[in-house]
């Protein structure tokens, strides 16, 4: 695939483009019970985690603005009311597009400091050759942090852990400690190659470090929500970590030999996983070029 093909494939993932009204009618919000008081919602965009109980409704990410009513309806069908807290795992619109709606309705929006900084200004995404305009003030996080943060609600200890320079520079993973559930945002694409947003500070080493941090927090019983893909287990994250680290090490060795990006792609250091892992919107060439760029910086 050429670099122009790379741009088209990534753009097709709709990371930035919200669904229109006609598309919205076709989006089904699927609710999966993950643990007592914790659910996963899938629709269009990044997976959403819900933690709800007597104290508050806490959600992780909120997909696109046209889906806010459907997301809220799904929460009501679970027997809960308005959203009180929104925690964004990073700045991309398929995870923050509902911020303005929920913020206007009274939810407190929380994120890493870099998320607010990126949402506050126009951002150029090199992979898509596109400038993303700054978000309106109502969509911006009103509480930010630089490392880790904890919430203590509904009898649950919810820990937001910063994953530096992973998918972006503002990623957080969210650990529902008592429920033993981790939402990893886009530091984990289940069963597929990840998108490393180089122009937003992402790196292959950061993604691997994020996987290591989540594995350290988890055990065999932990349920793991990826940013994209099905609900997963620790073994799935271990497999993901193995793929990332093996490809990283192979590409690093090729760079040390003086190979160009085109030569690395031609050598196919990810070949044994391409059929199963390369079917998402990030294909093998996309992934290898991002790894190469990350290691060559």
How many helix segments? 11
CATH class: Alpha Beta
Query: Spatial order of the strands in the main sheet?
Result: 1-2-3-4-5-6-9
Structural category: alpha/beta
Mean of all residue-level pLDDT scores: 92
Q: Which CATH architecture would you pick?
A: 4-Layer Sandwich
Instruction: Assign the CATH topology.
Output: Metallo-beta-lactamase, Chain A
Mass-distribution shape: globular
What is the CA-CA span between the terminal residues? Answer: 22 Å
> Biggest sheet, in brief?
7 strands, mixed
Order of helices and strands: HHEEEEHEHHEHEEEEEEEHEEHHHH
CATH level-4 homologous superfamily: Ribonuclease Z/Hydroxyacylglutathione hydrolase-like
How big is the Rg? 18 Å
Helix content: 25-40%
Description:
- The protein has 297 residues and is α/β, with parallel strands linked by helices.
- It has a single domain, classed as Metallo-beta-lactamase, Chain A (4-Layer Sandwich), CATH 3.60.15.
- It is built from 11 helices and 15 strands.
- It has a 7-stranded mixed β-sheet. A 6-stranded mixed β-sheet has the order 10-11-12-13-14-15.
- β3 (48-52) and β4 form a beta hairpin.
- The longest helix has 23 residues, at 234-256.
- The chain is globular, with a radius of gyration of 18 Å.
Show the helix and strand layout.
Layout lengths: L2 H9 L9 H6 L3 E6 L2 E5 L5 E5 L4 E4 L7 H10 L7 E3 L5 H4 L2 H6 L3 E5 H8 L2 E3 L4 E3 L10 E3 L2 E6 L2 E7 L9 E5 L4 E3 L20 H14 L5 E3 L6 E2 H23 L4 H7 L3 H7 L6 H13 L1
Parallel strand pairs: 4-5, 5-6, 6-9, 13-14
Antiparallel strand pairs: 1-2, 2-3, 3-4, 7-8, 10-11, 11-12, 12-13, 14-15
Helix pairs in contact: 7-8, 8-11, 9-11
């Amino acid at each position: 695939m050429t670099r122009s093909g790379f741009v088209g494939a990534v753009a097709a993932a709709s990371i930035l483009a919200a669904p229109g009204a006609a598309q919205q009618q076709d989006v089904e919000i699927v609710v999966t019970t993950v643990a007592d008081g914790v659910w996963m919602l899938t629709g269009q965009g990044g997976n959403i985690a819900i933690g709800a109980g007597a104290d508050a409704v806490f959600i992780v990410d909120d997909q696109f603005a046209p889906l806010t009513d459907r997301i809220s309806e799904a929460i009501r069908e679970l027997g809960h009311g308005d959203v009180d807290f929104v925690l964004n795992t990073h700045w991309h619109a398929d995870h923050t597009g509902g911020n303005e709606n929920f913020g206007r309705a009274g939810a407190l929006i929380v994120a890493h400091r870099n998320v607010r900084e990126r949402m506050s200004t126009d951002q150029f995404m090199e992979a898509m050759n596109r400038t993303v305009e700054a978000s309106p003030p109502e969509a911006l996080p009103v509480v930010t942090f630089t490392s880790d943060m904890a919430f203590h609600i509904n009898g649950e200890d919810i820990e937001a852990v910063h994953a530096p320079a992973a998918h972006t520079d503002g990623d957080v993973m969210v650990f529902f400690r008592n429920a033993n559930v981790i939402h990893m945002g886009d530091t984990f694409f289940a069963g597929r190659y990840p998108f490393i947003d180089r122009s937003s500070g992402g790196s292959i080493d950061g993604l691997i470090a994020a996987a290591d941090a989540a594995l350290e927090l988890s055990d065999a019983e932990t349920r793991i929500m990826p940013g994209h893909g099905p609900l997963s287990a620790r073994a799935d994250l271990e497999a993901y970590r193995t793929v990332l680290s093996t490809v990283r090490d192979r590409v690093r060795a090729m760079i040390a030999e003086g190979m160009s990006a085109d030569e690395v792609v031609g050598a196919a250091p990810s070949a044994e996983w391409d059929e199963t892992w390369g079917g998402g919107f990030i294909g093998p060439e996309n992934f290898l070029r991002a790894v190469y760029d990350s290691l060559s910086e």
